[in-house]
Amino acid sequence: MITGKFFRITICMFLSFFCIMKGDLYSASGVEDRIVCIDPGHQLHGDNTHEPIGPGATKTKPCVSPGTRGSISGPEHTVNLDVGLRLHGLLISEGVTVVMTRVTADVQLCNSERAAIANSAKADLFIRLHCNAGRSNSCFTLYPALTEGWTDDIYEESLKAAQIVQEAYSSYVGIPDAGLRPRSDISGFNWADVPTILPEMLYMQNTDHDTKAASPEFRQKMAEGLADGIIKYLKTLDSDTSPAMSIKSPSSPDVTLSPGTPPRSWEWKISTNGSRPKAWIPSLPAGRKTWKQPRIFARSI
User: Fold this and answer.
1) CATH, domain range 29-251
2) Long-range contact list for 278-282, CB < 8 A, 24+ apart?
3) How much is the pTM?
4) Which of 17, 177, 295, 297 has the most CB atoms within 10 Å of its CB?
5) Higher pLDDT, 162 or 277
């Protein structure tokens, strides 16, 4: 006969073994020291102020557009942000350090500044979340075209990441895969010094996509599909892989690393400096590659 005391001891031993095994599995996941920068595309108000599409470029594009919208799901920037926040939680649960370019709609961040945030964070992947305008029944992922002096340092890894994330996302959410598309005219690519991709997650004027995008359950599914692809990509990286150290800076640098002791949680701050915002990302403590607590909340100053 199994006594109550023996039963309790057996259960405690089982739970201890389970926790140890769970910890071993977690530590072996291979992504704990990785950094992902999530950029939920667009914002509440567009900014038609033009910026160079890359370092030294004479061609310019609007700083940031407000994006498209669905008749049911609403503005694209809100869908992108909701999926981005859900993706943040999923990656954090896997041990990934996550940097958000924005956590609210009412910000003012040009595309070059968003890339500078990813650069400053030395992200292993800079993922820019978007939905497309149109009625097609498909999804696809943009990646940087090979441009000497701009993207030649990130081209191969960006292409690899795009392939892995696109396949995982399309398969998971059930939206037909329209493949990959290189782009040479996207500021957020050309200013980046870290691997970067831009999934066009769905088409907002497609009635089925629009209906799904309005659903919290489907937004969660979108985030899960992206997380699956991101984790798969991060696991392909060598242990000594690190982003390029040379940082591209816009002609009027607006993104810097803040000095001093980092706050207890990751946060970025926006303050008005004349007509342009300024964003800071706290630097990591000496000898630390990651912070163990979740980073997400932003505050305005």
Assistant:
1) 3.40.630.40
2) 278/254, 279/109, 279/113, 279/116, 279/117, 279/254, 279/255, 280/255, 280/256, 281/99, 281/117, 281/120, 281/121, 281/255, 281/257, 282/257, 282/258
3) 0.76
4) 295
5) 162
